[in-house]
Design goal:
- The radius of gyration is 28 Å and the shape is globular.
- The protein is 40% helix and 16% strand.
- The protein is built from 18 helices and 17 strands.
- By secondary structure, the chain is α/β, with parallel strands linked by helices.
- It has three domains: 56 residues, Orthogonal Bundle (3-methyladenine DNA Glycosylase II, Chain A, domain 3), CATH 1.10.15.40; 247 residues, Alpha-Beta Barrel (TIM Barrel), CATH 3.20.20.20; 127 residues, Rossmann fold, CATH 3.40.50.
Length: 454
């Protein structure tokens, strides 16, 4: 729940009635209002007692801590979520995908998986990738595990997750890749041996089976001065996943239970041996709050499916998804191509673009900037009208791209045909289909009519 300004005011000097104005605001209540909305730093009030400052810091702390993993442009930012349900506001930090490499796999498999960490998938103007790599020791050969760590460091700048039950091997791997800010997995069994050797700034994944054990482990890590934490309750079934992630989220957001106020992890590799089952669980984990999701492997197609699901769920529902407003070319469009018009609402664009591609006919698609509105909504609000279409046709010099000036408009706005002909007197305006699925047949028939006329 949001912090109330009245609750903050009670902890300010003289019960919030000092009103010294040294913070730059007229009253203590104004300062409390700003503080409640993260509009001013707590340090601006120089008269706070240590006790009041500590109480305010606790009160203002995000229910789910912000945790940043990795370095450079491969940094992963997790936490600071505010709501249980996406429709309440939005989900802020999309989960990170990780693939696992083990020291029992061959070096050829290592190289194949490392190469996948370089994949990039662009959609709606955003780049998706496999964010992290989980390095697991399954054998007793610590040297082989160190070799794996070093080979991965040389092959990718993706963030690292270190997983091994042996404390000595884990610490050796940590020292070898400390400069890359790895995430170190700690359990109740190895916490006593590992934690004293870690830097206070180290990122740690607390892994324990069950809520009570996890809470106890987190408290030990906090007592040791570690606060960059990821927590994993050890969920092994779909039922466990949904229950555990929901309980943790609710405890953090609604009850401010600090032990669970951290981003979570879900190791699908431990929950199912079959890769397809892992991906089904991973898909559920994307929707149910997991911050890091670890799978054994991903094909290119499955990676794109997972990335699309993740982007859809972690796109702000208050802002319509859009694509860049410009002229798109399909099927080697050249002088013989047809010219079509649509809006930059992502769902409309991808429906039209997909069918344009499927038609096998060369085509240009003018993607009008409508602020992310669909065809009918854009027409009704004056953002897809003859004047705006004509302006884009002229601005993009479309007439110079084609031999025949024929412009196809969406069937849903057939009524603008006459006015558009007045705006573009040199163009032949054609009303296209109402549904994108009818576009391939329409374009093929149009091609036949053109050839017949010639």
């Amino acid at each position: 729940m949001p912090v109330k300004a009245s609750d903050i005011q009670k902890l300010l000097p003289e019960g919030g009635k000092k009103n010294c104005k040294e913070c730059g605001l007229a009253t203590c209540f104004a300062f409390a209002m700003k503080l409640a909305n993260a509009g001013i730093a707590l340090e601006k009030c120089t008269y706070l007692t240590p006790e009041s400052k500590a109480a305010l810091e606790e009160m203002l702390m995000a229910p789910i801590r912000l945790v940043v993993l990795g370095q450079g442009n491969r940094q992963v930012v997790l936490g600071e979520e505010e709501v249980m349900y996406r429709h309440q506001k939005t989900f802020l930090r999309q989960p990170a995908f990780a693939i696992q490499i083990t020291d029992e796999e061959t070096e050829a498999v290592w190289a194949e998986k490392i190469a996948k960490l370089g994949w990039q998938f662009e959609r709606l103007g955003k780049i998706s990738r496999i964010d992290l790599v989980a390095l697991r020791s399954r054998g007793s050969n610590g040297d082989k595990y160190l070799q794996l760590v070093k080979q991965v460091m040389a092959g990718t700048d993706a963030g690292l997750i270190l997983i091994t039950a042996d404390a000595g091997t884990l610490l050796a791997a940590y020292e070898a890749c400390k400069s890359r800010d790895p995430l170190i997995c700690v359990t109740p069994e190895n916490v006593a041996a590992v934690v004293p050797r870690l830097d206070k700034s180290a990122a740690v994944c607390a892994r324990a089976a069950g809520m009570e054990s996890l809470a106890a482990l987190v408290e030990k890590l906090k007592e040791a001065g570690l606060d960059r934490l990821i927590i994993d309750p050890g969920s092994l079934t779909l039922r466990d996943l949904v229950r555990d992630q929901t309980l943790i989220r609710r405890a953090a957001l609604q009850h401010k239970f600090r032990a669970f106020g951290y981003p979570t992890a879900f190791f699908a590799v431990d929950a199912a041996p079959d890769p397809s089952q892992q991906l089904l669980l991973a898909a559920a984990a994307v929707a149910k709050y997991a911050g890091i999701i670890v799978v054994e492997d991903l094909s290119s197609d499955l990676f794109q499916i997972m990335a699309t699901q993740r982007q859809d769920i972690y796109t702000d529902p208050r802002v319509p998804p859009t694509v860049e407003s410009k002229v798109y070319a399909f099927n080697e469009a050249g002088r013989s191509a047809v010219v079509m018009v649509t809006t930059n609402f992502a769902l409309t664009y991808y429906a039209v673009a997909g069918e344009a591609e499927n038609s096998k006919q060369p085509a240009y698609l003018l993607c009008q900037d409508t602020g992310g509105l669909c065809v009918l909504a854009a027409w009704s609000t004056g953002k897809l009208v003859p004047e705006t279409i004509a302006e884009m046709v002229k601005k993009e010099a479309v007439a110079e791209k084609v031999e025949r000036k024929q412009l196809i408009i969406p069937g849903l706005v057939a009524r603008i045909k006459g006015d558009l002909e007045e705006e573009l007197p040199d163009w032949e305006i054609t009303v296209g289909p109402r549904e994108a699925g009818d576009l391939p047949n329409f374009l093929q028939e149009l091609k036949k009519r053109r050839e017949g006329a010639a």
